[in-house]
Every structure is written in C-alpha cells, then in structure tokens.
Amino acid sequence: xxxxxxxEKVAKTFGERTLLDSVSLGVSTGDRxxxxxxxxxxxxxxxxxxxxxxxxxxxxxxxxxxxRIGYLRQRDELSGTVRQAVFGPGASETGDHSWxxxxxxxxxxxxxxxxxxxxxxxxxxxxxxxxRTALASLLVSDVDVLLLDEPTNHLDLEAIDxxxxxxxxxxxxxxxxxxxxxxxxxxxxxxxxxxxxQVYAYEGGYSAYVLAQAERERNAEAVQRRRRSLMRKELAWxxxxxxxxxxxxxxxxxxxxxLIADExxxxxxxxxxxxxxxxxxxxxxxxxxxxxxxxPRVLLDDVTWRLAPGERxxxxxxxxxxxxxxxxxxDGSLVPARPGxxxxxxxxxxxxxxxxxxxxxVVRGKTVRIAHLSQELAELDPGRxxxxxxxxxxxxxxxxxxxxxxxxxxxxxxxxxxxxxxxxGELSGGEQRRLQLxxxxxxxxxVLLLDEPTNxxxxxxxxxxxxxxDGWPGSLTxxxxxxYFLERVTDxxxxxxxxxxxxxxxxxxxxxxxxxxxxxxASLPVPTPTAGPSPAPPDxxxxxxxxxxAARKELxxxxxxxxxxxxxxxxxxxxxxxxxxxxxxxxxMGADLRSLQAEKAALxxxxxxxxxxxxx
Length: 616
What we know:
Blueprint: E1 3-14, E2 17-28, E3 32-36, H1 43-51, E4 58-63, E5 69-72, H2 82-87, H3 91-94, H4 97-100, H5 103-112, H6 127-139, E6 145-149, H7 157-169, E7 173-177, H8 181-187, E8 190-195, E9 198-203, H9 206-239, H10 250-261, E10 285-294, E11 297-307, E12 312-317, H11 323-331, E13 356-364, E14 370-373, H12 386-391, E15 396-399, E16 402-405, H13 406-412, H14 429-442, E17 447-451, H15 459-470, E18 475-479, H16 483-489, E19 492-496, E20 502-505, H17 508-523, H18 546-578, H19 583-615
Parallel strand pairs: 3-7, 3-8, 5-6, 6-7, 12-18, 12-19, 14-17, 17-18
Antiparallel strand pairs: 1-2, 1-4, 8-9, 10-11, 10-13, 15-16, 19-20
Helix pairs in contact: 5-6, 7-8, 9-10, 17-18, 18-19
C-alpha cells in the first residue's frame, strides 16, 4: 500500500474553537474511510485540509507527487452546461460518443443524471440536480483519492443504494463524511471519529465502529467509577477535623486537589425526552377511495389505506411519486374534494410547480394530535430568538410527574446558555432541524408524520432520535432516504411505485430497491444492429422477442432474490436454535421466519409462472 496523503501534528482553529489539535493520520491506496462526528466537530475542515483547499495553522500535510484528488464540497460550484460540468469544457464539441463508450461513465450518467438534460445550464438546476451533477463529475473521472463531503444530500434511496455499491467496488481510495450509516457500512472498511479536536481510528464500517465505541465507553466508565471512588475517599479525608488539617501530609493534599481539579466536564449530549401524549382511540387516520393528482399526473388512484394505533410505517418511492403530498393529505393541509365534486383544475402553481389536488375521504380520530415535520423550515422565523421560538408553542410541558420549562427542554436538546438567545437565522442547518423537532414535541402529539427527518442531523442526534421513537406510544409515518433510520424505527414499508397504488412490501426496503431496479432494467432500450445477421446465443437458439428477453431478466432477478431469502432463512434458523430458551425472541423470530417463507413462496410461484410462459 502506497501512502497518498499524510498529516502530521496538524492543528486548525477558528476563532476560539480548536477543531483539530495535533492530529496525525494518513490515507493509502485501497483505503475506504468513513468520517463521523457531531455537527461542528471538524469533519468538513479535515477534508478541506486533506484536499489542499485549506491550510493548517500548524503541522504538515504531504501528498504523493502527481496524486489525483477528487473533492466534493458541501456547496457545489458549477458553471456551463451539465455536460460541460461533468465531462469538461470541451464536451460539447466532442459529443456524447467520447464518454458513452466508457461503462463507468454510462453507469454514473444513468444513475445520477437520469431525467436531467445534459445540455441544460447548471445555473437553472435545482439544489438536488446540482448535487447530482457535482457528484457525477467526480465519479466519472479517474482519480486516486475521492474526498466526499455528505455525498448523499438530495439523493433518494435508489441513488444511495447505487452509490454505496459503486464506491465499494471502484479502485480509488475513499474518505467520505456522511450521516448515512448504511452508506458508511456498505462503502467503508475503516472509520475516523472526529471528537474534541482529535481523530480516533477504528477498523470496520459504521457497525464495527459502534461496537468499538461501546467498548471504549464501557472501559472509560469503569475508569471513572474507580476515579469517583478514590475522589470520595480523598474528599472525606480532607474534611476530617480542621484541627488535623496541618498534620496532613502535603502530598496527600496535592493529590486530592488534583483529582478534584481534573474532574472532566459532563459530556455535551443531546437528550431527547419522551413527552406525554393523548391516548389514541381505535381510529387514527383512515384514507378512503382517494385519488391524488400532481397537475395531470395521477399519483394515487382510488386508494384506501389505514394508519392504526401504534403503527410505525415507512413510506418510500422515487422522487416525484407523491410521498410529501401524501403526508399533507394525512395532516389535513391538503383537503380532498368530496366524491362527485370536481377538484381544482390541473396546472402550475405560483412557483411553476404542478398543482396537487385530491378527491376522496380522509377520516381522523377525535383524539388525534398530529405533528408534521416537513422538509421546509418555513415555520422558523430567522429573526426570532431560539427560546422565543419554543415559547411560541408552549412555555411549560409536563414530562411524567414533572413540569419542565421551555428553557430546560432547550438545554436537553443541546441549546445551552447564550445559545438560547441566538437568532434562529444564525443556527446551523442541524441546529435548526433540532429546534424544529423540539417545537413539534412541545405540542405533545400522538401521531408523528416525519418528512426526511434525518436531513442535517449528525449521527449522535440521529441515534438519540431513534431512541426516543423506540418508546414513542403513538402512530408514526416516516418518509426518508436514510435506509438505516427507516429500517431502525419502522415496522413495515409501503411504497409508491408509480402504478397509482400504495403497495405493502413484506421485504421492506430491499424489496423496494429490487422492484425499482427490475423496472429500470426492463425499460432499458435494447440496441439493434444496423447491419449483419443477429448473433445467436451460446445455446444455439435464436434471440427471442423483447418480451422474452424481459422475462429472462425477470427470472434472473427472481433467482437472485430467492437465493438471498434462502440464505436469510438459514441464518434465522440458526439464530432460533441459539435462542431456544428465550420465548420472546423465539416468538418474534418465528413471525419473521413465516413472513420470509411466505415471500419466498410467492417469488417461487412467480418464477414458475414466468418460466412456464417462456417454455410455452
């Protein structure tokens, strides 16, 4: 392995904040490193230093001669057309044939730039389109080191799934800052944690890092317990009779004082408190015979769906499939016209977007209190101070038997001291998101609708949020591109697949991604030769029709899925044998096994049906 970038005793300070303090590390060929840490810990600064975009205050950063570095910043800097931004200024003259012969370039364009006009000006792109374009420009290039700062921002589940596999399989060294834990687990085999000016290295992806961190904290707690015990003894000794004070050995006094002075501060963590909620009745939200349009497009066609008490549902679908509009339908901000009454006519709204309209019936229970965490931060007034923003909702909230003030709740959410009097407009994106969440919880809801709740949140806050939702007594519907979060907090997944229906997916996110990949593969155009006879396949049979080719592709997809489920079935059986004495685990595993076997049986029936059609 060749060392490509090395940092020796590097320090970087902004104002009075020391982000990196005498840090030494290196990046070698073949390294795939994920960088984690709280917002503001210095992750982006570390990447800027490694790339050369920023100079260190002290220390030394060396790069191998002629090393090629690709650096994705959090803010994209693009110019010209999409084609020029991705393939270089001369791409317009050379034409698409210059890159279309490269399998990597074709894959990047298909996955990241589908639906984006390559001839469009980058100045007219949306934030998400700009992000995809900037990422594509790096991934098509041949570099030695990829430095990626939050590459999953604005990407959907399908694109993140592809990106994880792409980064895992390409040969470049990789250093990626991301809050997407699934990506870190898939693409990385080492982890750097940036914390309190230091960088701690761990072997393995995110899951291995969590295990190592837990062991580190367990050891630290043991040390602290011994330390506290010693402190108590020393303090008791110091307080024994002032008349004996002069006779105490000086070295014992100095040792005791050192223990007290060196007591570390309480860790600055975000504590999310489970607030009281009104009890839900039998009816939470019933959607009956609803049709949903975006302009002339039908997103849902005569759909009936029910959110039950305590139900935890993940909602997935490609961008533009209607996920956010469906949440607006649930919370009442989108009011459907009654059956038989024509809804508003199609057409663009004031911002040029298609008008969303609905027809049907939505029934909400009498005790339902809905809180909707939207993607927008419009409800936060940038001129108001943090404390005032929370007090606008409620000044006090009851948690168990205690009454807690808005100021105390802000402290638990990481807004301490003067931070409570900071104007909202001066907060970071993650801090604003955290404040938005607190405002919702202060209203004591019993139904949560979360639209991309992980945006701008660091991993520590995400794990705290997941811990809160574990004990959430109400109903929950989540739209998220964060696969780890989605699988962690929901019990099942429903999908908008573009067929006008809301489909229950027993296989969860993996089944959804299989369905989307299958649809894309089936829709790919089949190239036809311009001259000459059609080549015969190895078995000597003639090439079939387009329908036969699509059927064979479906058979391959079904076989891969059945094989994967068979492996899961064997693994689950082994786990059941290991937990034979744990009734609760056996019950849950038994239910999981039955669900898995039912899905496998359905796939096998489909395989037989497709195979029978080919033989006929």
